[in-house]
Design a protein that fits this description.
3-stranded antiparallel sheet, Rossmann fold, globular, 404 residues, Arc Repressor Mutant, subunit A, single chain, alpha/beta, binds adenosine-5'-diphosphate, binds magnesium ion
Length: 404
Amino acid sequence: METQKTIRNIFQEFITKPPQIFKNRDVLTSEFTPETIYHRNKEINTIASILAPSLKGARPSNIFIYGLTGTGKTLVSKHIAEELEKISSQGNFPVKVLYINCKMKKISDTEYRLVTELTRMLGYNLPTTGLPTDYIYQTFFNALDSEKRIIILILDEIDALVEKMGDEFLYNLTRINQDLKQAKLSIIGITNDLHFIEILDPRVKSSLREEEVLFIPYNATQLHDILKHRAQLAFVEEALSEEVIPKCAALAAQEHGDARRALDLLRVAGEIAERMGDNKVTEKHVDMAQEKIDYDRIIESTKVLPKQTKVVLWAILELAETKRDDIQTGDVYDIYQKKCKEIGLYPLTQRRISDLISELDMAGIINAKVTSLGRYGRTRVIMFNLSEPIKQKIKAILNESLVV
Ligand SMILES: Nc1ncnc2c1ncn2[C@@H]1O[C@H](COP(=O)(O)OP(=O)(O)O)[C@@H](O)[C@H]1O
Ligand SMILES: [Mg+2]
């Protein structure tokens, strides 16, 4: 009896004890949609004005929205789309919005999947495989036209779509209005990739870009506002020390003004404090959060590197152990070749290796800087400045996958 009582007390205490750090952690995850959008009035007004004619039955221009990650593109577009659908349902010209994230597997892996998914969104079910492409296209077309209204198709992360299936599909979409009798289609393409538009076929480029809207990164003050309001919902009162939000905002602003990064920092800092049993989140937890996020990101990107790039990284690590400061492409290439031989991989040219080194640099795994040698031309100096634990972990991943 006595023990039973004790157990009950423990459980009871656990249930009734107020949470120490978080009131609602989910508010800081990417699934959460905030009620208020800060510092994006200009962008919202521009996009809303472009789309407004749809409320009178006219086809709005296609819009190309671009900007670095975490600048609010997805949030803003979905928000405007919802408002538009709501208001249009009260008027004479109903508007339908279809939203697709092209990075989502199973939905936009192939043209077939994408078209079936769009058709399904319009209320027609098609089998997920097996029909001729012409047939599903025709069904999609009929489904669209039977809508008798303006349809706005949001293709988020549109670069992923083009990467998977080329720009033929987009070309067809931008021409579809020539054949539609009753419906009209407008496209909103969104990308984080600032150079994406350059790779498109000129005809696709010009129709996708009838209007374009750039989302510039947030500065520290703006990130501060975004975080402050979210933190009020997420944390119990007094759980955040004063310097935490400014610090998260400043760190994220340094990177590139990424609101997602700022929110991640705040969330992970809270999680770390909670796990350590601290009842206040402090600057120290933010530093640890920064380290953890970097660690996770780099480990994840190392795991998915193509094999050749893994060998290049392996060679850089080998050199970093001995030479530290000024690793050059030529040195990397020598070791790379030896390793290729050892594991039976066909070596690429030094020029290609140069490209792979740039890719590693872009992924943030190494630092490669071009420096001038005065009249002897230019060379690239590679540095590997990650902490020892990350280095060890990367090594383990590489050794595991680089075997004969
Ligand atoms: N202006 C803003 N106000 C409030 N929250 C924002 C704002 N901009 C971005 N966020 C939040 O930051 C995160 C990233 O925004 P998102 O729209 O996904 O960026 P993008 O699509 O440009 O990569 C989301 O959690 C979003 O809710
Ligand atoms: Mg987005």
